[in-house]
Design a protein that fits this description.
6% helix
Amino acid sequence: MKFTETRLPGAFTVDIEVREDERGLFARTFCQHEFAAHSLKVEVAQCNLSVNHLAGTLRGLHYQQAPVAETKLVRCTRGAVLDVIVDLRPDSPTYLHHIAVELSEHNRRALYVPELFAHGYQALTDGAEVTYQVGEFYTPGAEQGLRYDDPRLGIAWPLAVTAISAKDAAWPLLAAEAVLS
């Protein structure tokens, strides 16, 4: 695997190294040793799948508070999504900065999301499927979120939103002096 740290310290894109022959291809998508060598959390508490019927569907931006903050390894296995993460580490020089990475069935890229980052994505194609390896168990009482259209974040989503949960649409806007815990 090829690990590339993004401009948000601790967040990485992970590209596979494909081995191809007449049968097709084979590639490792996760290895505890390789992730640990990059100082990434290697525990996997659960794996999730989301299927998005329509291009424009938006999920997020979600995170869990400590002590159950999550890491995620996110990959699109069908179609394409624009995956966005926001740094919520209060002492980070990139606090409230975000990056956007296209994940698709064609590029086979994954995004490693560190603890204390909000995560969300928009489906770029109908039928987009996304898998997550999550480093902590889902804990509803610790779940928080950011509004996808918060002007303080300045995220440029490429498509009009065609579907979003009521909960995701209702996260409050950040105050001008926002400090997240």
